[in-house]
Amino acid sequence: AKTLFPYTTLFRSDSKISNNNYYDVYIIGCLVMEDEKGLDEKILCVLEEDYLKGIVDLDNLSDEIKNSINSFFSNYKKDNNNGKWSNVIEFINAKESIELFKKYKI
Fold this sequence. Notes:
Number of helices: 3
Radius of gyration: 14 Å
Largest sheet: 4 strands, mixed
Order of helices and strands: EEEHHEH
Mean pLDDT: 85
Strand content: 25-35%
Helix content: 25-40%
């Protein structure tokens, strides 16, 4: 079955956030990976306040944050022993990620 949005959106912030609220976010990049179901893109966003502070592309994130994201998605299915797997392919920049978002936007 085809989903409406065939990717996951993640955002990071140092600000306190709450469940069941809407936030303005800006796309800064994408983690392209694959799993047992095929290609799986993770759109990466920041809150508006962080965007206005200059976090407008992946290059503005520290290597520590990018490595943490990469490590999590490289390993999060390994301990399940249920035939699931994941492989990180690459990060892509904000411009390419926005085009990817537009491709699937309804």
